[in-house]
Write a structure and sequence with these properties.
This protein is mainly alpha-helical. 67% of the residues lie in helices and 2% in strands.
Length: 172
């Protein structure tokens, strides 16, 4: 079967690497902004994790303190395009945990701010949570991570430079 050059299937090999760059840089930005927003107040990050009421306070505090650094590390790896598949896999796992946590808070009737891009925690009187937009947003980020799990090699990446290969040769 001959593919006409104007069909989407024929354009995919040229388009895919640049979609990968957009996915990699977009996800890197998400992690850098999220981690950067929390790193200044690690105690607040711990309180935000504790607001989900799924683990003991001390464990939530430790996870909350470590999470911004994990997010910043993922952002830097993705920005550089280094260990892209690993960073995408860890990103996907974290995003599944985040979506599950938000859905659990929603199902249990908790009124919390997810803490994704700031301090988070219990909402004040009269404030309503926005769980559905948060879940949809994180599912979109999960789609970016999934794309990078399938096609981790992108232009302008350390992975490609270290491997000495070109994006066109990489059909992972």
């Amino acid at each position: 079967m001959t593919v006409h050059p104007a069909t989407p299937a024929a354009r995919w090999p040229a388009l895919r690497p640049w979609l990968g760059v957009a996915a990699r840089l977009g996800l890197a930005t998400v992690w850098l902004v999220a981690g950067g927003a929390k790193v200044g107040d690690l105690a607040a990050s711990g309180r935000a994790v504790n607001a989900y009421q799924v683990m003991p306070y001390d464990v939530a505090t430790v996870i909350g303190a470590a999470l911004p650094f994990v997010e910043l590390a993922l952002g830097l790896l993705l920005l550089a395009g280094l260990a892209t598949r690993v960073a995408a896999g860890v990103s996907a796992a974290l995003l599944v945990v985040f979506v599950t946590g938000i859905a659990s808070a929603w199902a249990r009737g908790l009124a919390i701010d997810c803490g994704c891009f700031g301090s988070g925690g219990q909402l004040g009187a009269g404030e309503t949570p926005s769980y559905l937009p948060e879940i949809l947003r994180d599912l979109g980020f999960l789609a970016l991570a999934g794309f990078l799990l399938i096609w981790p090699r992108t232009p302008f990446s350390v992975d490609g430079w270290l491997a000495g290969d070109t994006v066109e040769d990489d059909d992972e």
